[in-house]
Amino acid sequence: MMKKICIKYVIFILIGFILGVVTQKLYQTSFKSNTTEKKIIYWVAPMDPNYRKDKAGKSPMGMDLIPVYEGDEANTTDTSIMISPTIEHNLGVRTAKVEKQEIFRMIDTVGSITVDENQIEHTHVYAEGWIKELLVKVEGEHVKKGQLLFKIYSPKIVTAQDEYLLALQNKNIALKGAATKKLQSLGFSTKQFKDLEYTKKSNELTDIYAEQDGVVSQLNIGEGMFVKPDSILIVVEDLSKIWMIADVYERQSNWVKVGQKAEMILPYIPGKIWSGEVNYIYPSLDLKSQTLRVRMMFENKSGDLKLNMFGDVKIYAEPRKDIIVIPREAVIYTGKETRVVLKQEQGRYSTRVINVGMESDDIIEVIHGLSEGEEIVTSAQFLLDSESSLKASFNRIDASSNTSSHNGV
């Protein structure tokens, strides 16, 4: 009896051994056929669908790269997701078409307001004397062209008037001509000549008037002071036009040209835009900052622009035509790459890696990765991109499992 039982166990063991050997042979044959039929195209990171290498290695996260075989690319690269219309509405998904537009090279910088040096008037006297009456009292005072600034007593001017009146009285043409030139050299105006001829009496005090509208920026005199022709007595600055001086980076310096449009905004007046133009480009770069100074002119008839204010400036450089552009808000920057979410048919969305170029206002140039007419997501794209990336991660994990089964694990 015991002998029969032992024989049965031996038979079962032999059968199991034979089946194991046969199964192993079949598996090895199947694995060899699979590996010989399929060729490794590239290697990918398990958690990043866009990280690819031509050979085995480590991903940026330190994980082993996974081989992608010929014919399996779709399984590992399909990162598209389906979104129902209800979810689209709840997420507030908005889209925009990829377009071709004319865009400007936009230079954004910061500048400070300064006076237009062509609008500065320096007041001098043409003969030494004493300030007898000063009508402008403080710096910052507004004056009008032709407004009386001060009265000066100058013996030299009084003597010249007496000579002119004597020539008139004697009807001496030669003497009158010489006296006229002398008074003109002392700053006598046509009106003052007429007054002198009318009154037939020289004036001890000579009136000095403002030559332009503006603000008194310097007041260097007081009543009773003795002054000379080489002294700057009063400085009047016309602020109806101002200069804005800004710095431009060296890499942008060849974009700027005289006559280009410029816009300025001030933090303390939100929403208001001043329009001007570039009117001068300085000939050399700043040695320390390696920036180029650019001067722009802006109208300031309202007087809102004050000297030494800082403002944000945009300079519109030369335009570029037929450039593929998308809204800047559609772009997703990950640090390693730049991408967008592409809307496809029937509620399907996928991510697309792109290369971007210059920016202009709220649009950005697309150098590679999109074509005109394609539709991209401009809101909620970060949620869709995260969902697409999660699907890509699962694809990588599935590929990892398949590779493990190929290796007999």
Summary tags:
409 residues, alpha+beta, 4-stranded antiparallel beta sheet
Describe the fold and architecture.
- The chain has helices spanning 2-37, 73-77, 85-91, 155-170, 173-185, 190-199, 381-406, and strands at residues 40-45, 48-53, 66-69, 81-82, 94-97, 99-115, 120-123, 129-134, 142-143, 148-153, 205-209, 214-219, 226-227, 234-237, 241-249, 261-266, 269-285, 291-299, 310-327, 332-333, 338-343, 348-360, 363-368, 375-379.
- The protein is an alpha+beta fold.
- The radius of gyration is 43 Å and the shape is rod-shaped.
- It starts with a helix and ends with a helix.
- The model is unreliable at 19-27, 29-35, 390-401 and 403-409 (pLDDT under 50).
Question: How are the secondary structure elements laid out?
Answer:
Elements: H1 2-37, E1 40-45, E2 48-53, E3 66-69, H2 73-77, E4 81-82, H3 85-91, E5 94-97, E6 99-115, E7 120-123, E8 129-134, E9 142-143, E10 148-153, H4 155-170, H5 173-185, H6 190-199, E11 205-209, E12 214-219, E13 226-227, E14 234-237, E15 241-249, E16 261-266, E17 269-285, E18 291-299, E19 310-327, E20 332-333, E21 338-343, E22 348-360, E23 363-368, E24 375-379, H7 381-406
Helix pairs in contact: 4-5
